[in-house]
Every structure is written in C-alpha cells, then in structure tokens.
Design a protein that fits this description.
heterodimer, A: 264 residues, mainly alpha, two-stranded antiparallel ribbon, 10 helices, 2 strands, 73% helix, globular, B: 297 residues, alpha/beta, 6-stranded mixed beta sheet, 4-stranded antiparallel beta sheet
Chain lengths: 264, 297
C-alpha cells in the first residue's frame, strides 16, 4: 500500500489550473492573432458596411436613429457570435481531435471543468474586444461616441461567454467537422437573422416575436443599442439575467459534453 | 529499493463496448524503480497508462497512484506525475521554451522557480540551443526529447512513458535511453510501456508482459528468461516439414519451441545435442512468444 506524502487538497475550479490553460491560449495567440483578428472583425464589418449603406439608402432611420447607427450597434452581436461560437466550435474540435492538445493538458492537474471554463473565459475575452470593432467602425460613419459605449465590451464579453459555451458544447457532441454544417445552417444562421440586427422584429407575427426574444443574440443587440443609443432601462436587467442564465446552462452542458469526449 | 508503491492496480478492468482492453490487471510499481509494460500493439498498454492519469475510468478494480485513489483524487496524483504520451501532442506553432513555459504553469511551478525549471528541462533534453525554435522545425528525436522534458519540468515523483521511442531511428533511441536511465538513476519512479524488447531489457528493473489486456508474466527480465526460456536457445533452420519434425521431437523430449520465421527455436536446450543449429542466449522475446504466441517487433 502506498504511503506517499500527500499534497494539500486539490479542489474545483482552481486558479492555477485556470491560469495554466489561459497562459497556453495567450502564448498561442501570439502565433495566430493576425488571422483570428482578421476573420473575427472583417466579416461583421462587411455586414455593417453592406447593410448600412445598402439598406441605408432605402431606409434613412429606424426607431429614431440613422440606419447606419442602428446596424452599427446591432452588428456588435454578429461580431460576438463570429468570434465566440465559431472559434469555440472549430478550435475545440481541432484541439482534441487533431492536435491532441487537451490530452496533454488533462495529463496535468487540470480537470474538464477547469479546461472548459478557462477556454470559455479566453474566447469571451476575445469576443469582448472583437465585438466592439463594428461599433468603432460605425463611429467613423456618424455614430456619436457616448459614455455608454464603455459598457459594450462587458456586454460582448457576457454574450461571448454563452456563445463560447455553445461552441464547445457543439464540438463536444460532434463526431466530425461535417456535423458543424447542421449547426451553422439550422441554428446559428436563423438566430443571427432574427436577432433584430438588420431590421426590427415588429413586423414579425406575434408568435415569432416571442420566439425571437428567446434568442440570446436578440438580448445582446438590445443591450448594446440601449447602452449606445437609447439608455438602459429595466428590460435590460432582464436581458443581462437572460444572458447569464444562457451562459450558465450551456457551461454545464459543455462540461458534460467535453468530459464524455476526453475521458474514456 | 523502497517497499512503498508508486502505483497499485488491483483487478483493473476497462471495456470499450465488446472489447476488453484491460482485463483484471494487477500491477505494482515500487517507488524508485523502473517497470516496463511489454506487449504488442493492442495489448492494453496505452489504456493502462490512461487509467493511471484518469483519462480513462476503470469499469472495475482499484487504482492507486502515489497514495491517491483514482479517479476521485486523480488531479492530486497528476500534480506529482509526468506523462509522455505515445502520440506527439506538443504545440507545434510555439517554440521549445514556450511549450515548457505553458507546462510550468499547468504544473503549478511558482513564479520564482519557473525560469530555473525551464532551464533545467532544456538541459536535461539537450535542447538549450533550440529553445527559440518552433516545434514544427524540430526533428522527431528532438520532439521526443521535448516531450520528456515537458513531463519532467516539475520534478515529478512518477513518470509515465508511453512508448517513448516508438518510430525513432536507433541512434535517437539510444539517446533517449540514456535520458531515461539518467532519470532512473536519480530515483524517479518510471512506468514505461514499450513493444521493443531491447528497451525493456535495458531499462526496466522488472517487466510485466501484457497480452489481450492481461498480465502474462511479471518479474525481473533475467529471471523471467531463465525461468521460462532457460539459458540457451537452439535455432534450427530448414524447410517447413523439417521444422515440424523438429518441433515434434522437441515436444517429446519435454522442450518448449517457438517458430521464428524460417526456423524453430528450441528453448532451454542446455546440453541438448539433438540437432545442428545456431545457439544463442535466450531473451525476453522468447519468453513473450512462448507465453502469448504473439510476435513482438
């Protein structure tokens, strides 16, 4: 029987484990930040410019603000989605399936809960930064800088947290890259289109408006618009709670999915 | 040598659907020793290694690593273990030093000790001059050395080496053997899986021969050879009918045989003069084939 001396009890969600995984991400980011930044910011910016100037020539104002300003704030949610859900889905799958990075990490004193949590924090942090890019671009096209904009990185971070969990969860359940096509086509694209980013949801039938309000992207859009254009109200408190709930629920499911994937 | 155990497995079973990868395995690894898990591909060696890091959970049995019960206390056990996987899982776009830095954090080395730990790991692996090289620019041997250095960065009490030299040329293999031997001489406990006979014979204090997830034999390599294959082996060459005749004669004389391609090896032939052939010392491969009927590369 072994009688080796024991170290101090090791608990859950320990800072050294989270730090270790985060350090790996930060060090790695130094080798691919250009491509990641390009893909996470250029696409939403193109949406902003295309819709802003395309529809903007037909629709001058919506709900009392210029269409470019309206879209410029809405596409923050798009940038968050692109830089969190997509990065989490593909990045996680590559790391466990091809690079076997998670095998290496899990051989160290890190458990799945810590691994997923650290990855989510990192992806959300990136989303918090990248999410602001369309808003900054919109400033150059007439969006007035206001103090409320300072809350946008936090809104983007909170939303990115949930979408990162979503992406890791999908990667945890996926058996191949091809599985992602179903998720992108059947889940992410519809959610992206009915978030109130490019057009108001008022024209939808009542039942569809109710469904649209279950969309976390919708709440992200509402929070950003209120922060920048309309000012916060009580409805925003509900949106924050909704995004927190969305993140917490999918965080647990992502941990379950990755545990099944990483531990035989 | 200490009587304390670094690893203790009792009746460990791991199934994947209909396949039983590890089948009621008992394994003791005393502290300060090097134990070799020897077996062909698919024998259950890598699964056993994964059981010891709780990356696979046993369906039955007890597993204890450095005094910690698995899987419940696996994280505490992993904090004191180093693992070199069979498949390279280095971050290829990072430099040698960055890879070590990441694992210095993962293994909770304090800020003040981190630099020294990385320098020591670079020296152990003889990669000081390549510290700024990206991993994808390293040779296979260098990458293997880095994997071992990564596993040693926190001065683990136990090192798990899963096929540490698989796929490497003989020269690089010898370099790694020297590195493993150095670890052993410094008192680090080592559990090493391999399918190379020579590797087990040279490095392991004791070996456990695995076949189909079970233990086929265990003991010191020299003892196993002496007990099961005798001191001397006679290899008789000839056409298949002649070899069959030799096998039958040897069996009637109470001698064990094994087919080795174009020859029959008659084991434990000390003084036996029935046939013309080449005499050689018995080895672990003779033992393995005798016990399992499977050839090892």
């Amino acid at each position: 029987m072994a009688t080796a001396a024991r170290t101090a009890k090791i608990g859950r969600l320990e800072r050294p484990a989270l730090t270790g995984v985060l350090v790996r991400e930060v060090v790695n980011f130094s080798s691919y930040w250009r491509s990641a930044t390009f893909s996470s910011t250029v696409e939403p910016t193109i949406y902003l410019l295309a819709f802003g100037f395309g529809f903007g020539s037909l629709v001058s104002t919506i709900n009392g603000v210029d269409y470019v300003e309206w879209v410029g704030t809405g596409t923050v949610a798009t940038a968050v989605l692109f830089s969190s859900a997509f990065a989490a889905m593909f990045g996680t799958f590559v790391k466990y399936q091809f690079q076997r990075t998670y095998d290496a990490i899990m051989a160290a004193p890190v458990d799945t809960e810590e691994l997923v949590t650290a990855e989510v924090i990192w992806i959300a942090t990136r989303a918090g930064v990248y999410g602001c890019v369309p808003m900054v671009v919109a400033i150059f096209f007439g969006l007035d800088p206001v103090w409320g904009m300072l809350t946008v990185p936090f809104i983007a971070w909170l939303s990115g947290l949930g979408w990162a969990c979503f992406g890791i969860m999908v990667a945890g359940f996926a058996k191949s890259f091809e599985n992602f096509n179903y998720v992108v086509s059947a889940v992410l694209t519809p959610l992206f289109l009915v978030a109130g980013t490019f057009f108001p949801l008022d024209g939808f039938p009542d039942w569809m408006q109710v469904l649209a309000k279950l969309n976390p992207l919708y709440h992200t859009v509402q929070l950003v618009r209120d922060a920048v254009l309309y000012g916060f109200g009580w409805a925003d408190f509900f949106s924050v709670v909704y995004l927190v709930g969305f993140g917490l629920l999918l965080w647990r499911v992502a941990i379950i999915a990755m545990t099944r994937k990483l531990i035989d | 040598m200490s009587d304390e155990l670094a690893i203790r497995l009792r009746g460990a079973v791991k199934r994947y659907g209909q396949i039983t990868a590890v089948d009621h395995l008992d394994l003791d690894v005393p502290l300060g020793t090097c134990v070799g898990l020897l077996g062909p591909n698919g024998a259950g060696k890598s699964t056993t290694m994964r059981l010891l890091t709780a990356q696979a959970i046993a369906d039955e049995g007890e597993i204890e690593v450095l005094g910690f019960q698995l899987p419940e206390e696996s994280k505490a056990a992993r904090a004191q273990c180093g693992v070199t996987p069979q498949l390279d899982n280095l971050d290829v776009t990072l430099t040698v030093e960055q890879n070590l830095l990441v694992f210095a954090h993962l293994y909770r080395i304090g800020r003040h000790d981190r630099h020294d730990a990385i320098e020591r790991a670079l020296e152990i692996s003889n990669l000081v001059d390549r510290r700024d090289s990206r991993v994808d620019k390293l040779s296979g041997g260098m990458r293997r050395r880095l994997l071992i250095a990564r596993a040693l960065i926190h001065r683990p009490r136990l090192v798990l080496l899963d096929e540490p030299t698989v796929g490497l040329d003989p020269q690089v293999r010898q370099q790694l053997w020297a590195l493993i031997d150095q670890m052993r001489s410094e008192g680090t406990t080592i559990l090493m899986s391999t399918h190379y006979i020579e590797e087990a014979q040279r490095l392991a204090d004791t070996v456990l021969i695995m076949s189909h997830g079970q233990c086929a034999a265990r003991g010191r390599p020299a003892d196993l050879v002496r007990e099961l294959a005798g001191d001397e082996v006679l290899e008789v060459y000839g056409p298949p009918p002649r070899l069959a005749e030799v096998e039958a004669d040897a069996a009637s004389a109470g001698l064990k045989t094994r087919r080795t391609g174009t020859s029959v090896s008659i084991l434990g032939v000390n003084g036996f003069k029935g046939y013309e052939g080449q005499r050689r010392a018995a080895n672990l491969e003779d033992v393995f084939v005798l016990l399992t009927g499977e050839e090892i590369t």
